[in-house]
Predict the structure.
Amino acid sequence: MPDPTRRPLPRIIAVTNQKGGVGKTTTTINLGAALVELGKRVLLVDLDPQGNASTGLGVDDRKATTYDLLLEDTLLSDVVHRTDIEGLFISPATTDLSSADMEMVALEKRSHLLHDALRQPAIDDYALDYILIDCPPSLNLLTVNAMVAADAVLVPLQCEFFALEGLSQLMLTIREVRQTANPKLRIEGVALTMYDARNNLTLQVEDDTRQTLGDLVFKTVIPRNVRVSEAPSFAMPVLNYDPNSRGAKAYRALAREVATRGKN
Ligand code: ADP
Ligand code: MG
C-alpha cells in the first residue's frame, strides 16, 4: 500500500550518453531551468566528478556532495543546495566522485545507492516535480546507479559524424538495467544538440537518427549557439543569461515536450 502521507515521487530523468562533450551538462542545467519556468520544482543531481553542472550554476559550497549521498549515508538536507533560481536545487559534485565507482563495487547494494538516497523521506520536503541526473561520460557504475534510480533516460546526441556509433552500447546498458534492476526504465527521448542547419552533416545525422529511432527523437533540436556556451562562465543557465537567445528558446521548447511526454 502506498503511504498516503507521502507525496508522489518526482519524475526522475537520467541525462546520459557515454560520450563526453555532447551536451549532457548543458541540457541538464537548461532543461532544469526551463522546467522551473513552467512552474515545476527541480533537483539537479551532479553525478559527474568533473562537477560541471555545479560550477555552471555557481555552487561554491561543496562540503557535502553527491559522493556523500551515495557512500556516507548523508542526509539529503546536508547535500542539496538552493541555487539562485527559485525552485531549482542541486546536489553538487567534486572530484571525490571519481573514486566512488571503485568504492561502490564492493557493496552489495552498489547499483541502488542513488535510488535509495533519492527515496529518503526528506525528499518530500522539497516538493519536487523533477529530478534530473547529469551523468558522467561513461557507462560505469555511477551511470548504472542513475539508470536504476530513474524513470527515464534522456540522451543528448551531438550532430556530428559517429554520433549514432555509441548509441547501441548505451541501448544495451539500458536493456541490461531493465532486465535486472529497473524494468520500468523508459527512454524519454533523444535530443539533437549543437544543431547547425547550414551544415550538411547535421542534416544527415538528423535524418539517420529520425529514421532509426523515429518518435524517440524529440521534435525540438538544440541549435549550436554561442550564448549557450557562454552562460556557465556567468554561473547561469542560458535562460537567465540571455532569455531571448535561440538556445534559451530551444530549451523551453524541449521542456514543454518533456512535460507532455511524461503525462503519456
Ligand atoms: P557533456 O556534459 O556531455 O560533456 P557539455 O554540456 O559540457 O557536454 O557540452 C560540451 C561543450 O559544448 C561545452 O563547452 C558547452 O558549453 C558546449 N555546448 C553545449 N551545447 C551547446 C550549444 N547548444 N551551443 C554551443 N555550445 C554548446
Ligand atoms: Mg558534463
